[in-house]
Design goal:
There is one protein chain. This protein is an alpha+beta fold. It has a single domain, classed as Hotdog Thioesterase (Thiol Ester Dehydrase, Chain A). The protein is built from four helices and six strands. A six-stranded antiparallel sheet has the order 1-2-4-5-6-3. Helix 3 packs across helix 4. The relative contact order is 0.19.
């Protein structure tokens, strides 16, 4: 699969339908960053009339995971990838359109290059920040990814 917003959104529909149906969508991906949006709606809200934390987590994880997928694809090797742990901070009610951004693409590239060179698994942290339409941070997520070149 070519890693593009269109193909990643198709992937969501087929493989991660909970993300698709709650409105998570990839808007942009480059070597350095990935942008994902999700709009607060009835289907993804909590009892407090803001976006449910798990929906925010899906969008945030996608910004990081898409970058890992991007560089795995570029390597032309079979590389396993898995989230080992995550941390999150919620600083404001998430309402309206929330945009998640991860700018750690070069960190992914370096980690994959090191895994290929050494043959050893690598772990690294990537951060995604969600901001509302006013540019105010509503949540910040950190994901620890593990990768390993398959033999």
């Amino acid at each position: 699969m070519d890693i593009s917003p269109r193909n990643l959104n198709r992937f969501l529909f087929l493989k991660l339908p909970a993300a698709w149906w709650t409105g998570v969508r990839v808007h942009n991906i480059t070597n350095e960053k990935c942008t994902v949006t999700v709009t607060h709606k009835w289907i993804n809200q909590n009892p407090f009339k803001s976006m449910y934390f798990a929906v925010q987590a899906m969008a945030a994880e996608l910004t990081t995971g898409a970058l890992v997928m991007w560089y795995v694809k570029k390597s032309n090797l079979k590389i396993s990838m898995l989230v080992a742990q995550n941390k999150s901070i919620f600083s404001k009610k998430a309402t309206g359109k929330i945009t998640f951004l991860c700018t750690d693409g070069l960190k992914v590239k370096e980690s994959i290059e090191k895994a290929i060179k050494t043959g050893e698994g690598q772990t690294f942290w990537l951060q995604s920040t969600g901001k509302n339409q006013n540019g105010i941070t509503v949540s910040t997520f950190d994901f620890e990814w593990t990768i390993k070149v398959k033999k």
